[in-house]
Task: inverse folding
């Protein structure tokens, strides 16, 4: 569970940083923000996912051979499917001026100043100090990881997806692990504080209620994406 979650975050974070570096000469995720993402990915996620109690389904699973790959076919589908969704969202937020203007009500964003690859030093300094555009990208990225953490709770097999409806529901048995709920809620609370209060230290600016709402919608989108992935597997 933890490996699947960690590898998905790695794929998305590396791609987002590379795209920003190439097109903006500045990563949309700053160094401090990447540290926070790594903290979610390594420390908090490991505590949350490693404390999941065993289920009776484990008794039905055959033993793994020593030569069997640690990353199964189902894990590959889950990782690449979720990473594709996250990358599509990040690219949309980075380059779609229409979405930023109409949905998020952002008028002062990086791309409407000048074409990529040609930013002045003054504009780059504005990006480095933090603007609403990149704050939305960062916030949406983190919230997608939080909801994908729910998806990572269940490592479905194709056989169980065909025979057990509960395997399609990521919230099954979640109340049996209050520590998982506590870690997820604490992470979300810290994210709110960081975005609204951390300011220049975290290279962010406070977001409005509307912008927070749409970032949550983007994060929740990871759940129906997982259903689509499960349908493909079946």
Result:
């Amino acid at each position: 569970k933890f490996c699947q979650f960690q590898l998905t975050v790695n794929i998305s974070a590396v791609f987002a940083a590379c795209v920003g570096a190439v097109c903006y000469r500045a990563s949309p995720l700053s160094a401090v923000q990447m540290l926070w993402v790594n903290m979610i990915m390594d420390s908090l996620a490991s505590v949350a996912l490693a404390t999941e109690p065993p289920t009776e389904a484990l008794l039905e699973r055959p033993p793994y051979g020593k030569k069997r790959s640690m990353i199964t076919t189902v894990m590959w589908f889950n990782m690449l499917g979720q990473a594709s969704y996250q990358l599509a969202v990040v690219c949309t937020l980075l380059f779609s001026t229409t979405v930023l203007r109409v949905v998020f009500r952002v008028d002062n964003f990086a791309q409407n100043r000048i074409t990529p690859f040609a930013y002045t030093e003054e504009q780059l300094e504005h990006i480095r100090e933090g603007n609403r555009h990149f704050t939305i990208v960062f916030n949406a990225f983190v919230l997608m990881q939080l909801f994908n953490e729910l998806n990572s709770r269940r490592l479905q097999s194709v056989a169980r997806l065909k025979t057990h409806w509960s395997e399609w529901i990521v919230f099954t048995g979640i109340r049996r692990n209050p520590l998982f709920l506590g870690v997820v809620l604490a992470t979300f609370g810290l994210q709110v504080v960081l975005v609204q209060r951390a300011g220049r230290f975290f290279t962010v600016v406070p977001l409005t209620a509307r912008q927070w709402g749409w970032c949550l919608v983007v994060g929740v989108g990871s759940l129906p994406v997982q259903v689509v992935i499960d349908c493909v597997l079946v």
User: Anything to note?
Assistant: DSSP finds eleven helices and no strands in the chain. Confidence is low (pLDDT under 50) at residues 111-117.
